[in-house]
Amino acid sequence: xxxxxxxxxxxxxxxxxxxxxxxxxxxxxxxxxxxxxxxxxxxxxxxxxxxxxxxxxxxxxxxxxxxxxxxxxxxxxxxxxxxxxxxxxxxxxxxxxxxxxxxxxxxxxxxxxxxxxxxxxxxxxxxxxxxxxxxxxxxxxxxxxxxxxxxxxxxxxxxxxxxxxxxxxxxxxxxxxxxxxxxxxxxxxxxxxxxxxxxxxxxxxxxxxxxxxxxxxxxxxxxxxxxxxxxxxxxxxxxxxxxxxxxxxxxxxxxxxxxxxxxxxxxxxxxxxxxxxxxxxxxxxxxxxxxxxxxxxxxxxxxxxxxxxxxxxxxxxxxxxxxxxxxxxxxxxxxxxxxxxxxxxxxxxxxxxxxxxxxxxxxxxxxxxxxxxxxxxxxxxxxxxxxxxxxxxxxxxxxxxxxxxxxxxxxxxxxxxxxxxxxxxxxxxxxx
Length: 432
What we know:
This protein is mainly α. The protein has one domain (2-228, 235-418). Helix content is 65%, strand content 1%. It is built from 18 helices and 2 strands. It has helices at 2-7, 37-53, 60-100, 105-116, 121-124, 131-146, 150-163, 171-184, 186-196, 198-212, 244-252, 258-261, 264-274, 287-307, 327-337, 343-366, 375-384, 389-427, and strands spanning 22-24, 30-32. Strands 1-2 form a two-stranded antiparallel sheet. A hairpin with a 5-residue loop joins strand 1 and strand 2 (30-32). Helix 4 runs antiparallel to helix 18 (389-427) and helix 7 runs antiparallel to helix 8. The model has no long low-confidence stretch (mean pLDDT 84).
């Protein structure tokens, strides 16, 4: 974004030594190896901040020196306004939508806790990598799907692709889920889809033609050799055949796996089978089934892509960050399935969501970068460190107390309202 402001070009020749996340084209120029969404969509906001903080500085060297010293602060500000705040707003919109559908407060409470506190997005929202921005767009896409808006669903899908290339695969389950609606008025809906693609499509064409010389020439093709996998069969040197080992590690591994970072997602998959009922796999029977189909299929597609990536562990992050864009949609399914679950199954949800939230917030308080050793062991070792022990203990107690009180208050309020309703019915004339 600095070079776009200074030269009007997305090249990072001047800054590539500050990062390992670069791609180098045959003409010798350097570009970011990330999808361009966060860069292009965040540029207007960053431009305003940059003008404020570099005001009065005449040379580019002076401006770059100021930017370098403010980089962490600016990253936090941009992340808050373009990722965290939109995530909160969309969570509120989903709460309002599901409440109108008659979903009770208890499942909605646990849905919110899982969405905002109980997954890797809790960590990623404060970092401007694009995963949290993609999650925001996918939540908005899901809202468009729920409301039957072809334009809204495809617009936010396009913005998600612009922010995370893996999101392109979601067009398949999205189109299947919306097919009954699409075929009713095909010409009109094709026009809506085309209109939805104008803005993200224009940004896509500009960036990829300018940087890499082709509409479908991605930065991965010119990747930093440090990330290139020497596998015999690979795409751009970094995507090979999906690795069963990587997939198992992402699901159950102790260094990045869902089992140790956000186990409620595994409970979500296991619940239908332990209920003794055959899962309804039809994407067309209801809006709820449409959303479930897109979410579960999308998650599995993300998992396959992640398992095909040589660096599947995604660096020093306490969780599977390449899967994190799907976690927001996954959290919505908690509230949708709560009514049909048994009491024991819902207790498993409350326990695993609480465990996930405690882990995520504790890790944030530790301010540490994990290695490939067991994450919970690293948490315990860091808690033992005199620099982190007190704040970690406070975080554990505070989060656990908050979750329990929130759940208990809503439960008691519901029971009290039910008791009042029963009393009114019993006292009414003609009641035996």
